[in-house]
What does this fold into?
Amino acid sequence: GDTAAAAQLAASLLAFVILLVMLERYSRRRARYHSAAESRA
It folds into this structure.
């Protein structure tokens, strides 16, 4: 019982992190696309 719950929690956390990374990459790509000259670090 505990092992299944732990595996499900780990899978959920992994999916959440992947979703965050994808969202960040998408927003960063859009920002670079919209203003490439402004964001010159």
